[in-house]
């Protein structure tokens, strides 16, 4: 297939074939941009020379603690400099980075420590109690704790464990990085948020992460010297691989520990932030922020949003504030975002309402991917691109995981038919652009009719009193299921259940309107996704009010 008749002497060799890895980005940046700021966290400021040296010392120090290539090093850290350094330093000694969700309770952390077989764990001082509880619940000895205090946030060390700075001091600045011999080697282990049962361990390879950084730089785009704010947690698809991408362009990674509107505005005004990724809930926080928390800035901030389709109302409200939002979509299993809503010039003259509706589409495949489309899940046949037929989003390309750790059955099931089965239900427009209708499990089937919870939420979000909402299926004797809306109201607003039902009835078919509205705070994951399964559970148990 495609070979020339005589290829004698045309073999791969060290000069013409190098395994792809994001580690190469930082090695190059240390040479090209030695004095540029690489890593910033308020008073903590490091150049590329210093960043590279700290990552090198970390790799060396881990080796001295007995970490060998293929071993797992876990983290339980917020978005602080040590976490960015771990993204290079851990794989630079050949180990696999397992960044664990900082909001998990000790039982799940214990399961992840055991399942991933972490040898060392870098733990934020504030999370030491959770880590100790998790280790106590394990059968074996558990990982050795290295404590990471955060003086910038006023969080001191407990004094009971070796600290991160002490660890770095034991490392050699001349340590020779352990680069992958094969780009298929494992780089990172990320546990899915496990809405049902135990979370699954998703394994990334060096090649996928490298190509993810390249595709992101093309799509976003990320210019030379970009100032990137870490709002997406570093444990969430490794911050969508953005921290690995920044050194390509000599960019600055600016750490943000606590995600508030004030901290975001301060970073934009004080540090000149140009780019960040965030869930729609964060955009909502910015839109509804108090005037006192806002700061003036005179440039456009480029934003990738994902995690749930952003309501058109949120996009319409945030853009005039100086943010250009692009919707992207992906999963833990795809290293983060793999589709983007690529803007077409033909849409420029559309009325605002239509433009924001288009911007809320899930979009089309990014350049490092091969094919992303919607199919009928059983037959694996392409659905009609008519804007109404629904199918499952199927994904194929280089930024798809190796599989689930120690779970060949689930891996095989998710790759059936040569595509990764996302579990997300979408329709496709005639131009091929996808629009997520729902997670397969969030579709409401009422009297045989499919109702997209996202569509109903999009309408509710247009009501001026609604801060946040989630629509789930409520069991119903007559219809099987009916839509039930959970709503958080804006601080100074008042609205009744009747108001909201009437508001949606004016804009939606009768069967799609919520039959009940419950006012309460919504349960959220660490990345701002609303936990609908908890709301469904509360309805089942009659505890929703």
Automatic annotation (TrEMBL):
<dbReference type="InterPro" id="IPR000873">
    <property type="entry name" value="AMP-dep_synth/lig_dom"/>
</dbReference>
<feature type="domain" description="AMP-binding enzyme C-terminal">
    <location>
        <begin position="455"/>
        <end position="529"/>
    </location>
</feature>
<dbReference type="GO" id="GO:0016874">
    <property type="term" value="F:ligase activity"/>
</dbReference>
<protein>
    <recommendedName>
        <fullName>3-methylmercaptopropionyl-CoA ligase</fullName>
        <ecNumber>6.2.1.44</ecNumber>
    </recommendedName>
</protein>
<feature type="domain" description="AMP-dependent synthetase/ligase">
    <location>
        <begin position="27"/>
        <end position="405"/>
    </location>
</feature>
<keyword id="KW-0460">Magnesium</keyword>
<dbReference type="GO" id="GO:0006631">
    <property type="term" value="P:fatty acid metabolic process"/>
</dbReference>
<dbReference type="Pfam" id="PF13193">
    <property type="entry name" value="AMP-binding_C"/>
</dbReference>
<keyword id="KW-0276">Fatty acid metabolism</keyword>
<dbReference type="GO" id="GO:0046872">
    <property type="term" value="F:metal ion binding"/>
</dbReference>
<dbReference type="Pfam" id="PF00501">
    <property type="entry name" value="AMP-binding"/>
</dbReference>
<keyword id="KW-0443">Lipid metabolism</keyword>
<dbReference type="InterPro" id="IPR020845">
    <property type="entry name" value="AMP-binding_CS"/>
</dbReference>
<comment type="similarity">
    <text>Belongs to the ATP-dependent AMP-binding enzyme family.</text>
</comment>
<keyword id="KW-0436">Ligase</keyword>
<comment type="subunit">
    <text>Homodimer.</text>
</comment>
<dbReference type="InterPro" id="IPR025110">
    <property type="entry name" value="AMP-bd_C"/>
</dbReference>
<dbReference type="InterPro" id="IPR042099">
    <property type="entry name" value="ANL_N_sf"/>
</dbReference>
<keyword id="KW-0479">Metal-binding</keyword>
<dbReference type="InterPro" id="IPR045851">
    <property type="entry name" value="AMP-bd_C_sf"/>
</dbReference>
